[in-house]
DNA sequence: TCCTCCCGCCATATT
DNA sequence: AATATGGCGGGAGGA
């Protein structure tokens, strides 16, 4: 039985998501040739210093052959965080009081997606040798990290948007690391600019601000701020401003936290706090490399873009709450010192308008 | 109090 | 039908 799946032809890659349909188009455009991706039958090579586990293939075989064992192990593994001896620990737990038992459980923080993502990333080199097999088996990773596969998807989906991995087959991804990260970010940046995400968000902020003076209006599905912004450049597919009302945003926000965790683990963004009139506010600032936009006519839609739009257009940080992903229009210098006082909203709006005008006048119309 | 986001159900997509 | 994928939101830990 061939457990390594049939040789993969890149051109035949299925694109399971509407979203990644576009994403893969760009992927195909910008992805450098990583050499023969069609060598899955080759046994895993372990280059020196690389964190591939030597027993990976064996483990995969075992888990493929025996799902019951895998499940059992996974449950035991809850207490087996790489210390081994699950039996002994289970034994131990039987004699613990409820309170003690609770304490012995991993804390919520220990189970965070950010930490998991760090563990995930630690398994692979930043700049893998494209000549060797860089396959990732999701099942295997989930098992080794003692998490449900669902969590691995959380990570891999973001990495895929950044083209740090690409889908190879069912349950399999190829690890690219940061080889083409800057290029991807450049593409994302230009897409963000093409779609005027930053301007759209400024628009939302403006509406939000205006709404503060009108208490008779409240957010609803028929949120005026959504309707009131027919896209100015002719594109009807401006994903951001077409979002429905506050319920949707609240639901969105949880996803953004997930994504923020992964991006933080990649050191692309960093959590900061800024002070507004109403108090401290959590925000993120871009800590990744400086990116120059690539020219690209292709549209991409993903949360990554929503993030990216915060980054382009001189918007350096944003908060995820209150009540929608909330931009903080502060300079990068301000963002770097958390204690900087936050300018009044009026001042912000003035700055935004000025910025917009400058942009429009300096940049020739496309 | 409210930011954060784990967890896993379950709908949908793929094989 | 079986399995893979991932949308989604309840509700709880933590600051």
Automatic annotation (TrEMBL):
Q: Where is the E2F/DP family winged-helix DNA-binding domain?
A: 108-177, 196-288
Question: Which GO molecular function annotations are given, in alphabetical order?
Answer: DNA-binding transcription factor activity, RNA polymerase II-specific; RNA polymerase II cis-regulatory region sequence-specific DNA binding
Gene Ontology CC terms, in alphabetical order = RNA polymerase II transcription regulator complex
Give compartment(s).
Answer: Nucleus
Q: Which UniProt keywords apply?
A: Activator, Cell cycle, DNA-binding, Nucleus, Repressor, Transcription, Transcription regulation
Q: Where is this region: Disordered?
A: 33-53
Give the family from UniProt: Belongs to the E2F/DP family.
Q: What is this protein called?
A: Transcription factor E2F8
Give the organism the record lists. Answer: Camelus dromedarius
User: What phylogenetic lineage does the species belong to?
Assistant: Eukaryota, Metazoa, Chordata, Craniata, Vertebrata
Stretch of the intact protein here:
1 to 366 of 598
